[in-house]
Amino acid sequence: MEDSILHNQTPNHTLTTNQKWTIASTSAGFALENMDVMFLSFALSSIIASLHISGAQAGLIATVTNLGMLAGGILFGLIGDRFGRVKTFTYTVFIFAFATAAMYFADNIQLVYLFRFIAGIGAGGEYGVGITLIAESFAHHKIGKMTSIAAIGGQIGAVLAAIAAAFIIPAFGWNALFLVGLVPVILTYFIRRNLHESDDFVATHAKIANHTAKQPVSIASLFNTPGVALQTVGLMIMVVVQIAGYFGLMNWLPTIMQHKLHLTVAGSSVWMIATIVGMSIGMLVFGNILDFFGPRRAFGIFLIGSAIAVFAITLANNEPTMLIAGAILGFFSNGMFGGYGAVISRLYPTEIRATANNVIVNTGRAIGGFSSLAIGILMDHYTLPVVMGCLSAMYIISFVVMLSIPGLRKLSAHHEVAPKATTVEAN
Hints:
By secondary structure, this protein is mainly α. It has 2 domains: about 15-215, Growth Hormone, Chain: A (Up-down Bundle); about 220-415, Up-down Bundle (Growth Hormone, Chain: A). It has 18 helices and no strands. Mean pLDDT is about 80; it is low at about 1-10 and about 415-425.
């Protein structure tokens, strides 16, 4: 299903102005999106105390946000494919920025649910449109690396959220923290001023306008043949495992380690930082492996590595080994995240590329987001090795599913048979 993509790439491999703005704006957008999500994590205990809500009501906030992401992913994926990526990207940034800032006025749980759902709509719509901008602006053999660089922006956002929360919440309260969400509005000005639609989208849109090509922008296009349906469902399962592993590990492992190693909150925060550093390095390494050796080898190495690392972390028995284990686990488990957008962008044609990215990834977010609840239930009834064994099994299942997706096999064969062809094809 892969179509040819036009790229503005100079012979000496330097980046064009539009390419620089593409990677800068998407990286910043993902950083601010992740910062918004992490604000909730850092403010949750304060929200519970000030609004006098139960743990179940508090847990539902993240679920509502994920459902908003799914709705926004579907809506803005279709809009981005029909009307343009740049305009749509700025609209999604506006939505999650103002919805995040609106949390300042939330004085009851109903308003919290409403504003988090709207913020989720903006954040969910932003992902696929941003990834599609990258895919249509860079040569095939660089997409993996560039989407991984953009994903690292999300990790920077998590660090910025931690710093902002440490200073703002004690001094001004949790509501004030969410006012920082207005910062992305500044980003939209520079995006609309400097970023342009890709040649690929412009050419495709012109064909549609001239009635020389049809406009198959619908979710049904992701399931219009048995092969495409198998591919779409398979990628959804892989993303569910990716998100489930991320949320489960980031939400539960610090608490687990506090009990197992008798760490303080500060000690578990150091572990968190080590894990985020490992994730960022893993993303860069994964992107390069994907570009040079193809998706099957890249995902194969990281999925098996994740399965081993998740279970091996139960063997850590002191703080130094815990830091090392956390970094290794972050390296493998979240290093793959940028790769999904890269392969989805190559497996689906221009007409439905943003829709495919948003629907597949945000379905994974909506379902995978329940992993925290599932792990909590397992922790109540089973030992830590059993819980980690279940997580490990998930990565093995994802590995088997990955091997069954024909499109990934074709992309990998392209690397094996003609590793230099992508350069010619992209220019």
